[in-house]
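Example with several molecule types.
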Amino acid sequence: MKKVIYAILICIIIAGIVIIATMGLNADIIYSKNVELDVYIGQTTNIKDIKNIVKEVFPGERVIVQEIELFQDMVSIKLADTRSEDELKSKAEELNNKINEKYGTENKADDITIIHNPKIKLSSIIMPYAVTIGISVIIILIYTSIRYRKLGIVNTIITYIISIVAVEMLLLSIIAITRLPINRIVIPIGLLAFVIVVTILGFINERKLNVTAEETEKKK
Amino acid sequence: MNRRLEIALITLLIILVSIISFAGLFVQHTKFMENIIPEYQLGMDLDGYRVITVKASDETETKYYDKDGNEVEKEAKDGTTKEVPVNTEDMLNIQNYKKAKEVIEKRLSDLNIAEYLIRLDEKDGRITVQLPENSMTDTASQFLNSRGVFTIEDEDGNVLLNNDNLKSVQVGYSNQSTSGTTVLVRFNFNDDSVDKLKEISNTYVSSTDEEGNDTSKKVSIKLDGSTLISTTFSEELANGVLPLTLGTATDTSTLNTYMNQATNIAILLNNGTLPIEYTMDQNRFIKSDITMDDFIIPAIVVGAILLISFVILIIRYKTFGLLGIVSYIGYMAILLLIVRYTNLIITMEGIFGLLISAVLNYILIVYILETVKKTEKDREIYKKQFNKSMTSIISILIPTLIIGIVLCFSTWLPAYSFGTIIFWGVIIIAIYNAIVTRGLFLLNIKEDYRI
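Resulting C-alpha cells for the full complex:
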C-alpha cells in the first residue's frame, strides 16, 4: 500500500514538473498581466455597491475592486488583460452607465482611465525567501543530526531533506496541475507545509528516540 | 491558599488579560474613551499600498548652438536653438528599461524598503512600484525617477569628472569640530581617476590678482543638474577621495537631516544611473482589496474548529480539559499582546504564523493532558512526566524556532512578519506552558488523589 501511495505521489510530482516546465504556473491577476479601470465617481460610494455593479458588468470573472485614496469617491477595478481595446471601451461604457444609474451622476465613460499593467515576475516574490529558508534548512539539519544521532545521522539528514523537498514539490505540483492561481496565500501555505513537515518529523523521531531509550533500559 | 481559589484567581487573571488583548483597554481621554493598547500594524496586503508609476519622459530640452553649429551652454549671438527629446530614440530600448528596473530595485533595497512589488512594461519602459505606506514612502518615491547623474564641472560647464570616475560614495561624520558633529559625503574615485582629481584639486584653487580681485577658479559638484556646491580646493586631494561637508549640527534632529541627505546621495550614486530620463506618472494610495468581510468566513471556520477542539478537550479530559482551554486562550491573548507591543507588522504570512502558533500550542496542551492521564494524577509523577514531556516538545519545536529566528533576520517584510510571529509563538509556548499550564494542572491534582 505504501509503495502505491509513493508511486502516486511521485507521478503527481513528475506531472507537476512537466506542467511547470511547459505551461508554467498560473498567476493570479495581482501578479499577472492585468488591466486596470480607474473610475472617478465624484461622490462618496460604498465599495460593496461598486463590487455588485462590477459583478454585473464582468460576470463570472475574477475582478479586484479597490478604493483609491481615502475619499471613497474613486475605485480601481483590476481584471485579466484578455480583451481588445474596443471591448474594454464598451465594457467601460456599460460600467459607467450603471454607476451613473446607481448614483445619479453624469460621468463620462471617456473619463475612465484604462491602464494595462505588466506582470510581476513570480521569482521576485519567491526569491526573497530562498536564502533564509535555505539557511533554516541547513541549521535544522545540523540540529536534528545532533539531536537524533542515535537514529543515524545520515538517515536523519536524508529523511529531512527528502520530506521537505517532497512536500513542497507536491504542493507546487498540485497547484500546477489544478491550475490554481498563484496568489498571496500560496507562499504562506508553503511556509505552513515546511513547519508541519519539520514538526511531524520531530514527533516521529522523538517517539523513536523514546522507544530506543526504553529498549536500552530493558536490556540493562 | 485553597487550591480551588488559586485556580479561580489564575483563571480570572487569564480572562482579564484576554479581555485586554482581544478587546483593548479603554481609558477616558478628554471627551472620548481611548484604547491604550497599541493597534495592530498591518502590511501592504492587508492595509493598502502606494502605487507609484514612472514613465520614460517625452519632454524636450533646448540645445544651443553657436553660429558655427557647435553646441554651447547658453544662447549664443547669431546662434541657433533646437528642441530635442531628453530621451533619444536609440535610448528607448528594452536593455535600458531592464537596467532602469534593476537600478530602482537596488535603490529600494539600499533604502531598506521591506516590501515592494515592481512591474516593468517592456514595451514602453513604464515602471510601476507598489510600496507600503509609511514614513519612507515619499523618500522612496524620489528614488524612482532621479537619474543619479553626478558631475564635477568647471565654470564653463565642462565635465571634469562624472559617475564613470566614481568607485563608491560613503557617508561619514566627524566630531572634531567644536561647533558640533560634521556630516560628510566621501566620494571615492577609481584608480584611473586619482591623478585627475589631484590635478583638479591643484588647478581649482582660491586666488586673487594683484589688485586683490578674486580670480579663483571654481568647480561645481552637481547631482542631476542641481549644484550641491560651487567651491575651490584648499588642499591637494592625492588619495582619490573627495570629502564634501553637508553640514555641522549640534542637535539630533539637524544631525539626522544631514545624515539622511548624505545617505540619500550615497544610495543614489552607489547603484548606478538610470539610463533614461523618467518622469512621475502616478502616485496614489490604494486600499487593500481584503476587507473585514473577507475574514468572516475564515473566522467562522477557525472559530468552529476551535470550538470543536475545545469540546473534545472537555469530553476527553474533563476539568483538566477545561483548564487547558483557559490556558490556551491565555496563550493566544499574550501572543497577540506581544504582536501589538512589539509593533510587528502583520502580513498574510504573519497570519499564518499566528495560526501555526495556535495549532502548536494546542498540540502541546494535548500532549500535557495525555501526560496527566498517564501519571494517574499523582503530583510527583506528574511533575517528572511534565518535565520529560516538555523536553520532548521543546526538542520538537526547536526546528520551528530555527525557522522563526532565521526569518527574523530577513529584510523582506512578509518573511520577517512570519518569522517574528513564529519566534514569539514558540518562545511563549515554552515559557507560558511551563509556568501557567503546568501550574494550573498541578493545582487541579489533589494530593490524596491516588489510585
